[in-house]
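Quick one, tokens below:
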């Protein structure tokens, strides 16, 4: 079912439509929150808070303008920032992560890719890291990233290109495998 139709139904009080929206977007938002929080529990809390705020917004607003997915990412981003501020946590260093992830038959390759991406992006500026994660970990379109970050599309393109150039130089320098 189309997102816009589900949004209209949810605003009219259709809890089934709201459940469908949450079910469709929750895994993506939870994954995003995992990148921006210290542990799984914080990620789950942030994802749940994202949907609570979105539902409150739907209840209080007469209509929805724009794309729903970038709207959710904006909320999640702000919640993760707020959560990190209140927790006053320090960045998790790569040294504190386990050297080799335990073998898990299902999803092992995806977990390994995630660990590699986290290690690669650790040296980037926070803004560049965010763009790379939104594009490659979350597989968002450049236009959606522009909506989430509030940057012009051309700026997103050029900053992402610069981040990828930095990663390429880092890989060549370290002979990454």
């Amino acid at each position: 079912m189309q997102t816009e139709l589900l949004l209209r139904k949810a605003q009219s009080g259709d809890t089934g439509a709201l459940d469908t929206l949450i079910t469709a977007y929750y895994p993506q938002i939870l994954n995003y929150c995992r990148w921006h929080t210290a542990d799984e529990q914080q990620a789950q809390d942030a994802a749940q808070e994202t949907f609570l705020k979105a539902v409150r917004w739907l209840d209080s607003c007469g209509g929805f303008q724009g794309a729903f997915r970038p709207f959710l990412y904006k909320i999640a981003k702000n919640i993760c920032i707020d959560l990190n501020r209140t927790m006053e946590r320090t960045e998790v260093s790569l040294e504190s992560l386990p050297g080799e992830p335990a073998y898990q038959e299902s999803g092992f390759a995806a977990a390994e890719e995630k660990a590699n991406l986290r290690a690669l992006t650790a040296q980037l500026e926070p803004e560049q890291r965010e763009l790379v994660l939104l594009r490659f970990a979350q597989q968002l379109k450049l236009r959606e990233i522009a909506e989430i970050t509030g940057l012009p599309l051309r700026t997103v393109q050029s900053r992402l290109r610069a981040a990828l150039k930095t990663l390429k130089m880092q890989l060549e320098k370290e002979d990454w495998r």
